[in-house]
Every structure is written in C-alpha cells, then in structure tokens.
Amino acid sequence: MIRPGDVNWMTAGRGIAHSERTPAAERAAGSEAHGMQTWVALPKAHEETAPAFFHHPATSLPQQQRDGVWLRVIAGRSYGEESPVKVFADTLNVALTLAPDAELALDDSHAERALYILEGDAQLDGVDIPARHLIVPDRGTRPKLRAKTPLKAMLLGGEPLDGHRHLWWNFVSSSKERIEQAKQDWLDGRFGKIAGDDEFIPLPER
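Given the sequence above, the corresponding structure tokens read:
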C-alpha cells in the first residue's frame, strides 16, 4: 500500500521486471493516484549492479517546514538533510510544497539542477513560471522561488553523468551492445516473472 508522501525506489541495475497495478478493489472504489516518476542514470561503474526495490514511508524521509514552505528530501542531500534512499552518485531530489506568497532560495550545492513545477503558478527571481514547466538555473546561483498560488514543485539534479547514455524503450545503458542484449533477454524471458501478473508486453517494433 502506497500512502501520500511514500517513496518507492527501484534500482534497475543489470535488469529488472516490475508491474505497476492498482488492486481491483481500489479500482472499483474509484481510487486515484498522484505522483512523479523520476529516472536517474547509474554511473558506469554501477550499471550492472544487482536490481533492487525499496519502499520508504513518508515518515522516514527528512523534511523541513518553515514560513509556508514544506520540503522533503526524497533522495540524495539538500538543505542540510540527507535521505535514507540508496543512491550511487551525488543526487538532488526534493519535493517542495509552498503556500501562496511563500519563498525559498534554491539549494546551490549541486553541479546540475532543474526545477519542475507540478501544480500552481510560480515565480523564479520575479519571472513567471506556469505549471508543468522545467527550468534549469545557472550553476552556483540561488534564485528565489515564490508561490503565486498553492504550489507543488520538484527540485532535482546532482553530479553530471560520466558519459553518454543510450535510451531505447525501457532500457538505458552507456553501451548500445548492452541494450541489444537486453532486447534479446526480454524476448527470451530472462527478466523473470511478476507474481500474479502474467501479461507479457512485447518489444516495440522500433
């Protein structure tokens, strides 16, 4: 059961199969889900690490509340806090909830950062940002986020990637050859089965 604020964190590593389903009883009752899914590329040295899955209750995540701002460090470190979620590189992943007119200077301790507005109207250093927009601040700056309405946003980033990544369907790797192997592994059923879910999703044609 996923409750508001909980985090499910999956490390794909050398390959993992998973299923995202809402139980039939909850679907029948009209259940709703709201969240944000983030993909974080593994460093080359850890691309073939063992796959893993962890559930972190909301109460286990470090958080701060002050002056109309509520921030939760989902993964990595920020604002003097560090999440218990296991990561393999310096990571920034913070959920932000701001009341109208609340302000927050963005953490500048990471080389790469982006701010994504999920809900509400915001300003960054006085410039309007509508919902569902991504902003990449300049390195080393501390622009001020201001909520014009009730606001939900994500601050994410971390250290730069250690090289180019290839993306094909659900497969990500620094090696095109490894992706070709993953395609064949999927066709041959070597990713394993999901208990209670017998559906097989075929590879895309392209």
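The two ends are 35 Å apart (CA to CA). Try to locate this feature in the token string yourself.
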